[in-house]
Amino acid sequence: MDKLDFLLLKFTEYMKTSDFSQRTIPTYAHNIRLFFTYLKGSGVQSIAEVDRQLLFDYQTRIYLETFKGKPLAPATRRARLTCIKTFFQYLTKSGLILYDPSANLDLPKRPQGLPRNILSKKEMGRLLSEPNLSKPLGVRDRAILELFYATGIRVSELAGLKVSDLDLSSGELRINQGKNRKDRIVPLGEIACDFLQMYLYEVRPKLAQSDQPILFVSKNGLRFHPTTLSHLIINYGRKSGLKKGVSPHALRHTCATHLLKGKADIRHIQRILGHEHLSSTQIYTKVEISDLKNVLKRCHPRERKEVETDDI
Questions:
Q1: Which listed residue (140, 249, 253, 258) is catalytic?
Q2: Counting Cβ atoms within 10 Å, is residue 141 exposed (0-12), middle (13-18) or buried (19+)?
Q3: Strands 66-67 and 70-71
Q4: Per-residue pLDDT tens for 269-301?
Q5: Is 275 a catalytic residue?
Q6: Is 238 a catalytic residue?
Q7: What distance in Å separates the CA atoms of residue 94 and residue 121, rounded to the nearest whole number?
Q8: What does pTM read for this prediction?
Q9: Which of 64, 81, 172, 239 lies most in the core, judged by the most C-beta atoms within 10 Å?
Q10: Is residue 302 annotated as a catalytic residue, yes or no?
Q11: CB 167: neighbour CB atoms within 10 A?
Q12: Catalytic site residue 249?
């Protein structure tokens, strides 16, 4: 193991004991290895040799890099550089290097595209009615769909829910160790509570063993992997015949958008979704503006091509 690989090993151990999502650690390691490949290709053998100019050269290299003939997406470029900056911040904080050469490295602006595949209330109704409630798994799946829609919970958070996190008497759900390892309590609507109660008392005892703490389990009584849960939601979207791409994240966007259209305060939505920064939640206000533009284009006389001048 060379010195660079040793530093990466130490950084990986640090991430495992810090506020890093376990799912993002492999991404950090991959992006740092790409950086190491660049260093070795440039004849750099020690991390102490890295200076600001070399990092600026690497940044330029990323901007020129292509994948399948196309430039890297802004999110990919940002992720590459974010991993490098975090790595050097760790090295500086740990005293492994004297100064941080990445301190003045500017990151690409975070992409601010509008959320996609937001379902209308009618489309959401079609999706919710798809599970067969005459079958135990249908009741379970309806409860899962209702919970996604009611709370905007992330798929990884839902997969990790325990029975003890659910308080049906108070209509509350505790989400432990969400993104950035933050805990939060979110309210549950009456309909979501009704289906959760049906699942909890009529279906779950048939699926889960008595010592299984996880709330939602597979037909074999095992804990769901987030990817399996995602496929479950995607399949219901296909069965319902909806043209939009249905996924757990689309249901999260749908929940937030419907709350905003129902005049919920943006900061309340922020707390429900578990966003650390309000700017992450404000993206849904842009959806509202986009909808208003469509209304204007469809309804305003100046935007209707067939309108005659005599009518103006």
A1: 249
A2: buried
A3: antiparallel
A4: 888 888 777 766 777 666 665 555 565 566 655
A5: yes
A6: no
A7: 52
A8: 0.64
A9: 81
A10: no
A11: 13
A12: yes
